[in-house]
From TrEMBL:
Name of the protein described by the UniProt record: Serine hydrolase domain-containing protein
Highest taxon, organism lineage: Bacteria
EC annotation from Swiss-Prot or TrEMBL: 3.-.-.-
Listed SUPFAM superfamilies: beta-lactamase/transpeptidase-like
Xref: InterPro entries: Beta-lactam-related, Beta-lactam/transpept-like, Diverse_Enzym_Activities
Species annotation: Isoalcanivorax beigongshangi
GO molecular function annotations of the record: hydrolase activity
Gene3D superfamilies, sorted: DD-peptidase/beta-lactamase superfamily (3.40.710.10)
């Protein structure tokens, strides 16, 4: 199916879809509070935790923002408290009021992994394999060291980290936010199959004026953010990914298009996924205008 790359945060798309499906099967509304699944929420010092719902976790509007507080999932050589020590949640302060804005967070998707385990009665990795038949698409989880069929990564612009970076991250804890790997074709086929069966529910519209669609990562739906340049008729939903040595991008457009791009490096400055989004958007807009 092609070369294997680490999907990084493209993993979040599949976590989101699995949670949406499990909530529907359990006949639970997305407004169900997190406390329904994690009782530690009831003892949280920050009372705003009671306002965190499954929907707000899905849409990065639960109150966490890694630009304001350190990301507990990617601290150097530190075991994250999620998912293994959820009592630590009681002391965590949110960065903003739930539902009042958007803040990208790996922690939200770790918590969604816990929600999925509660709904399914299985481990996160087991339920994902069963739900999506990941092996049929050549998709598998990473435990740290490189798999035999992975590409070689370019770490020239990865800052402090080099090819042994995985020694300082907990890939088990990162399973639901950045744990999957595979080829671009494998992920594209999986998403296309879900779409053809009307089982892909990541794209969602936003009321006019509720956020700025021309600003990247401003309008979050289920995992993916909505993006539309001014004076353009093209709307897209985007998930970007980055882990040291890897850049990734998934894009759905309002004409039914689907694109997966995986790279084995990053530019010296800025985001490789941002650069690719700008280029792909321009090419798609031109294509659809023909």
């Amino acid at each position: 199916m092609g070369a294997r790359y680490r999907y990084a945060s493209l993993t979040k798309m599949l976590t989101a879809q699995a949670v949406l499906d499990a909530m529907e099967q359990a006949s639970l509304p997305l407004e169900t509070p997190l406390s329904h699944f994690i009782t530690a929420v009831n003892g949280a010092k920050d009372r705003r935790w009671s306002q965190v719902t499954v929907e707000r976790l899905l849409t990065h509007s639960a109150g966490f923002d890694r630009l304001h507080s350190p990301d507990p999932m990617t601290l150097h050589a530190v075991t994250p408290w999620c998912p293994g020590n959820l009592d630590r949640l009681k002391a965590v302060m949110l960065d903003f009021d739930p539902g009042s804005g958007y803040g990208y967070s790996n922690l939200t998707y770790c918590l969604l992994g816990v929600v999925l385990e509660s709904l399914s009665g299985k481990s996160y990795r087991a339920v994902m394999q069963d739900h999506f038949d990941l092996a049929a698409y050549g998709i598998q989880f990473v435990d740290g060291p490189y798999l035999h069929d992975e590409v070689q990564y370019d770490f020239r612009h990865a800052g402090f980290y080099t090819d042994d970076y995985y020694r300082y991250l907990d890939f088990s804890a990162l399973s639901s936010s950045a744990g999957l790997s595979g080829s671009a074709l494998g992920l594209a086929r999986l998403l296309a199959d879900l779409s053809s069966k009307k089982r892909l529910a990541l794209a969602r519209e936003f009321p006019s004026g509720s956020c700025d669609p021309a600003a990247k990562m401003s309008c979050y739906g289920n995992a993916m953010f909505f993006y539309q340049k001014p004076d353009s008729a093209l709307s897209v939903w985007v998930q970007q990914g980055y882990v040291f040595g890897t850049s990734a991008l998934a894009l759905l457009d309002d004409r039914g298009g689907l694109l997966i791009w995986l790279g084995n490096g990053a530019p010296a400055r800025g985001s490789g996924a941002d650069i690719m989004l700008d280029d792909i958007y321009a090419r798609l807009a031109e294509l659809y205008e023909q």
